[in-house]
Structures are given as structure tokens and as C-alpha cells.
């Protein structure tokens, strides 16, 4: 086990429990969950509907408060009302539907909304808005009306609106669910860049296994607890377990898993298209050679 | 016998005469036979949604005609409404349109508007609910007490209850988890098989299209760019990529294998097919 320096930790849940008011007596959305996320991590949270993903995400910036246990954001306990503004400046949230997150009629005014509310100096706001728009690659659209943009562009505007608060961490709850493949790629490229270039911690909640595959760490939730936690390769190698939780694996892993079942000795840790092709090539290579020998 | 749906020179222009004028459909000739399972794909803005809204008379062609069973649907403007019972359209996120006190009443909304007798409405509601996997007990709950996937299925039942000849679904699995997606698709497949209803499935998910559609239609910039079986369409992976469409991951693996010098046919689009092809090659080596 690695010893984690407390200063490196951005999110920490200790024995976290939560129950919705409408739920029955023993129906906890989170039950005794523990997780630590370090600064700069790029982490995906998977799980079927109702597994507790979104409930957990809402604890990350104090939209929900623990019914039991403790939630810390950069060392601040979310149950402390006095800290709520600091917590929300530290962790920004992006939701599924971009249309629900845009408040202004002009892109740059929308981005300025949060810093204005935080009482940031106007000159500083100007700078933050420009920087945020550049970070998501939407600077040239600053004078546009948000409703004329595509879904992927709108979602990047929503992300820029969060960036303008200069958070250390961004939690995205299925940000690509309503987008087409092009919009999805735009958003994924953007959040990866924010992580790599700006060091922002990213927590990505998704139903798309291919998206989870590009993260550094994958956490799988089931019944309000963590079922497994590891690198994408470690997690997706557990094909049976994921299927039993109603999840799928990327097609690349699925194929190799099925080939192994047929008795082909091929490593299960090929995740990307490139790795999968490589692994298959390695077991089939002799075909080419034999053919060469036969036909030359 | 003419196809169940046919378009002739169908064009649609949004905002004609304004600075936002845009040609969304450009001279579409399309014929769909009874019982087909069509997969309709295209980048956002390619005209998919505009097209399907013409097929049940929600939008009126700027030019050209839409025929259902060989009859121009706009010939008699008073009868356009009846077309909506025959060509059922399930919108994106249909659960946002649930509004009644109970799931039963919501599903009954369409048949009631058709002016059917009470007993027949009841029969259809139960039948539609069974098709989508909504239990009798759930029928008498508020739609807002259902889970996301259940709400989606209840909304689909509302369209099925009209017993349309053509069922059009716009991204029916968007935003659902893998189990929820498969559940919806299985229900649609069953409905198609049992009822022989014509189905048009609009989706961005190439794996779903590959596994379900008997014919794929690819749209780009208001035109039909390709039409054919999954085999025909996915063998043009490069063209699809140029149109901003993804090809299934498994197809990408085979394209890469070919680049690496293996003699493989890259028109593979399901994991099962891929497995069979590789196994065959592997057995050839180890025979």
C-alpha cells in the first residue's frame, strides 16, 4: 500500500453513507464508501444506473452532504457550512445536458457569470474568461449566442464556465451522453488537455467504456460501494465481474476475452485498437510467414 | 406493391428568406419496404431528424412528396393527423414528455386520441406495456416513480399502443447504461420480429446499428450518401470517418491488422464475426 501525503489528496470519502428521503429504510445510495483521489488524477467512475455514481459525485462539491461518515475536499469537511463556497470553488461540476447549464445570451457573458458572482475584479474576469475559452478551444466563439452552437461546443462552454472559477478539480457527470461522436471527442480531448496541461484533477462519470479506457484510473461502483478500483487494464481484465454488474467492456477486450475462451493464448491487457491489433497479429503472424514460405 | 414509405425529390429549407436560411434536406429519393429494419446514421446536422419528421407529417416538404402506402400524405391536409397514428415517432429523450398521473394514462394517450373504444384502448395499453416490459403494477404508478430506463420504455409504449405500421425511434438508447441500452434494443427487436413492423432506428452507436439493422442509410449534408447492408456500409470505413462518423472499434482493429500486413477482410463489425474470422485464421496456422 502506498502512503499518501495529505497535501496531495483532493477528495477523500471516509465511510461515506447517504440515503435519499424517498428511499425505504435500508435502501442506502451510498453505504460505507471509502475513496481517495489525489491531485492531478484523471479518474473514471463506472457503474449501472442506480449504483450510486451520481450520488457520490454530488458529495464531491457539497451538493449533497453525508448522512454518515465524512467527505473532505482539499482537507475541508463538506459538512462545515462555512466552507461551502471554498469547496465549490475547489471542485466544479459539469452535468449531462449542456442546455441546462448555460445562463447568458452571449458565450463570454456566460463564462463570466461565476467569477462575477465570486466578486472577482473586472480586469481579472476578462483574463479568466479569455483563458477559459482558449483552454476549451472556443475563444473565437466568444461573441456567439450559445443556442446557435452544437452540443459538443455548448458542453465545452459549460466546462469553460467551470474553469473560470479556477477549480483544482472538475467532476463531470456523463458529459457526453447527449453528444454525437464528434462532440464526444471534442469534450474528451478538452478534459484530457485540462488534466495534462493545467494539472486539473478530473473525475469523469460515464457509461462509455471507451471513455473510461483513456483515464489513468477506473473505479467501478455497485450498490453504493466500490466494486473494483485500478488502472483501465486491471479493471477491464475482470470481464466476468463487469458483466455480472451489468456493464460491458470495450470491444477490443471482449474480442480477446472470447479468443482466450477458445483456447488461444493471448494476453488480456490489450485495450486500445493498436494494442488489440498487435496482440492478434502476434498470434497470427505465422500465417503470413507460412504463406510466404509456401508461395515464394 | 409500393414501399410503405417513399419520398420523391424531398427537400426542406429552414428559415427560408431569413439570414439563417439553411437547406436541411436536398432532393431525397428514398423507398422503404414493409418489414425492413432501417438504421439511419449521420453526423449531427446531416438531416436525419428533419427527414424523420417528414415521414410522419410533422414537417411539410419545401419541395417534393412523402408517400405512405403510395399516397401523398399532404394530398388531403385534414388526413395528415391520421398519418401520425400509422407512422409512430419516438423522439429523443421521450421520457421528458411523460405527463399523466399514471403510466397507464400516459400510454393510453395516443389510442384515446385515435378515438378508440374504451375496451380497445385497455387492450392496447396492456399489450404495449408487456412489449416494453412494464409490469401491471407499474402501470398504476406515477411515471415519475420509475427509473430512467423504465420511463424511457413507458414512453416508447405510448407510441407502440397506437400500433403504427412504421416505428421510428430517434436515439432510443441515449444516456442509458449498457444494460438499459440492451434491454431497449431487445424489446425493439422482438417487436419488429413479432409484429413485422417497419422500424427506423436513428443512432450514433455503430455497434447497435451493426447488430440490428437489415439496411443502413447514411446521410450527410441533407443527402443520402450510402445505403446498404452493414457489410456494404462498414467496408467504406474511410468514407465514414470523413463524414465525421465512427466505425465500430472492432472494424478499426481489422483495418489496423490489414495495415500491418495481414490478409484480412476489414468489413467486420461485430465481436462475434471478428472472433470467427480470427479463429479460422488461427486454426489454419495451427492445423
Q: How does the SSE layout of this entry go?
A:
The complex is a heterodimer of chains A (296) and B (287).
Chain A lengths: L8 E10 L11 E9 L3 E5 L6 H8 L7 E6 L2 E2 L6 H7 E4 L12 H11 L4 H14 L15 H13 L5 E5 L7 H18 L2 E5 L3 H5 L3 E6 L2 E6 L1 H5 L2 H6 L6 H11 L11 H23 L1
Parallel strand pairs in A: 3-8, 3-9, 6-7, 7-8
Antiparallel strand pairs in A: 1-2, 1-4, 4-5, 9-10
Chain B lengths: L4 E10 L7 E11 L4 E6 L5 H8 L7 E6 L2 E2 L7 H7 E4 L12 H11 L4 H15 L3 H4 L8 H13 L5 E5 L7 H18 L2 E5 L3 H7 L2 E6 L2 E6 L1 H5 L2 H6 L6 H11 L11 H16 L1
Parallel strand pairs in B: 3-8, 3-9, 6-7, 7-8
Antiparallel strand pairs in B: 1-2, 1-4, 4-5, 9-10
Helix pairs in contact in B: 3-4, 3-6, 4-6
Through-space gap between termini of chain B: 52 Å
Percent helix among the residues of chain A? 40-55%
Question: Could you tell me which chain pair has the largest interface and how many residues each side has?
Answer: A-B, 43 and 38 residues
Oligomer status:
heterodimer
| % residues in beta strands of chain B | 15-25%
Secondary-structure element order of chain A, as H and E? EEEHEEHEHHHEHEHEEHHHH
Strand order of the largest sheet of chain B: 6-7-8-3-9-10
Largest sheet of chain B: 6 strands, mixed
Strand content of chain A: 15-25%
DSSP helix fraction of chain B: 40-55%
Chain-averaged pLDDT of chain A: 89
Number of helices of chain A: 11
**End-to-end gap of chain A:** 56 Å
User: Gyration radius of chain A, to the nearest Å?
Assistant: 22 Å
Can you tell me the CATH architecture of the largest domain in chain A? 3-Layer(aba) Sandwich
Amino acid at each position: 500500500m502506498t502512503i499518501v501525503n495529505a497535501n496531495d489528496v483532493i477528495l477523500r470519502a471516509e465511510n461515506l453513507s447517504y440515503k435519499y428521503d424517498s428511499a425505504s429504510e435500508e435502501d442506502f445510495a451510498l453505504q460505507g464508501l471509502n475513496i481517495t483521489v489525489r491531485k492531478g488524477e484523471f479518474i473514471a467512475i463506472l457503474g449501472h444506473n442506480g449504483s450510486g455514481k451520481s450520488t457520490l459525485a454530488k458529495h464531491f462539491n457539497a451538493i449533497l452532504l453525508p448522512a454518515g461518515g465524512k467527505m473532505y475536499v482539499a482537507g475541508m469537511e463538506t459538512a462545515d457550512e462555512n466552507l461551502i463556497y471554498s469547496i465549490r470553488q475547489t471542485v466544479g461540476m459539469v452535468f449531462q445536458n449542456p442546455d441546462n447549464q448555460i445562463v447568458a445570451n452571449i458565450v463570454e457573458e456566460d463564462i463570466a457569470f461565476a467569477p462575477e458572482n465570486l466578486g472577482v475584479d473586472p480586469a481579472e474576469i476578462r483574463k479568466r474568461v479569455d483563458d477559459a475559452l482558449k483552454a476549451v478551444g472556443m475563444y473565437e466563439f466568444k461573441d456567439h449566442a450559445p443556442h446557435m452552437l452544437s452540443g459538443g461546443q455548448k458542453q465545452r462552454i459549460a466546462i469553460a464556465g467551470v474553469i473560470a472559477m479556477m477549480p483544482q478539480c472538475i467532476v463531470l457527470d456523463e458529459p457526453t451522453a447527449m453528444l454525437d461522436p464528434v462532440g464526444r471527442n471534442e469534450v474528451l480531448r478538452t478534459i484530457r488537455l485540462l488534466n495534462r496541461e493545467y494539472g486539473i484533477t478530473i473525475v469523469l462519470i460515464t457509461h462509455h467504456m471507451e471513455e473510461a479506457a483513456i483515464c489513468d484510473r477506473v473505479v467501478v461502483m455497485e450498490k453504493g460501494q466500490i466494486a473494483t478500483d485500478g488502472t483501465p487494464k486491471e479493471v477491464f481484465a475482470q470481464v466476468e465481474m463487469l458483466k455480472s454488474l451489468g456493464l460491458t467492456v470495450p470491444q477490443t477486450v471482449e474480442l480477446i476475452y472470447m479468443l482466450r475462451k477458445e483456447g488461444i493464448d493471448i494476453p488480456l491487457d490489450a485495450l486500445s485498437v493498436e494494442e488489440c491489433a498487435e496482440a492478434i497479429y502476434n498470434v497470427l503472424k505465422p500465417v503470413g510467414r507460412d504463406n510466404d514460405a509456401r508461395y515464394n | 406493391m409500393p414501399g410503405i414509405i417513399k419520398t420523391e425529390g424531398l427537400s426542406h429549407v429552414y428559415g427560408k428568406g431569413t439570414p439563417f436560411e439553411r437547406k436541411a434536406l436536398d432532393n431525397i429519393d428514398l423507398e422503404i419496404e414493409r418489414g425492413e429494419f432501417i438504421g439511419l446514421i449521420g453526423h449531427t446536422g446531416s438531416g436525419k431528424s428533419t427527414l424523420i419528421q417528414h415521414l410522419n407529417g410533422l414537417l411539410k416538404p419545401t419541395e417534393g412528396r412523402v408517400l405512405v402506402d403510395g399516397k401523398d400524405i399532404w394530398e388531403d391536409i385534414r388526413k395528415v393527423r391520421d398519418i401520425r397514428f400509422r407512422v409512430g415517432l419516438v423522439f429523443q429523450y421521450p421520457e421528458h414528455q411523460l405527463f399523466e398521473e399514471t403510466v397507464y394514462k400516459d400510454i393510453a394517450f395516443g389510442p384515446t386520441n385515435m378515438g378508440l373504444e374504451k375496451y380497445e384502448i385497455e387492450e392496447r395499453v396492456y399489450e404495449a406495456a408487456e412489449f416494453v416490459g412494464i409490469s401491471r403494477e407499474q402501470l398504476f404508478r406515477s411515471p415519475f416513480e420509475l427509473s430512467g430506463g423504465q420511463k424511457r420504455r413507458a414512453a416508447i409504449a405510448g407510441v407502440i399502443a397506437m400500433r403504427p405500421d412504421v416505428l421510428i425511434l430517434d436515439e432510443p438508447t441515449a444516456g442509458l447504461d449498457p444494460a438499459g441500452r440492451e434491454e431497449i434494443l431487445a424489446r425493439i427487436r422482438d417487436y419488429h420480429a413479432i409484429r413485422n413492423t417497419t422500424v427506423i432506428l436513428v443512432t450514433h452507436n455503430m455497434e447497435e446499428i451493426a447488430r440490428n439493422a437489415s439496411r443502413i442509410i447514411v446521410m450527410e449534408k441533407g443527402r443520402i450518401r450510402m445505403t446498404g447492408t452493414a457489410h456494404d456500409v462498414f467496408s467504406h470505413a474511410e468514407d465514414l470517418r470523413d463524414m465525421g462518423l465512427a466505425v465500430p472499434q472492432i472494424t478499426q482493429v481489422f483495418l489496423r491488422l490489414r495495415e500491418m500486413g495481414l490478409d484480412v477482410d476489414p468489413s467486420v463489425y461485430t465481436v462475434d464475426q471478428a472472433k470467427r474470422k480470427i479463429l479460422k485464421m488461427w486454426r489454419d496456422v495451427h492445423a
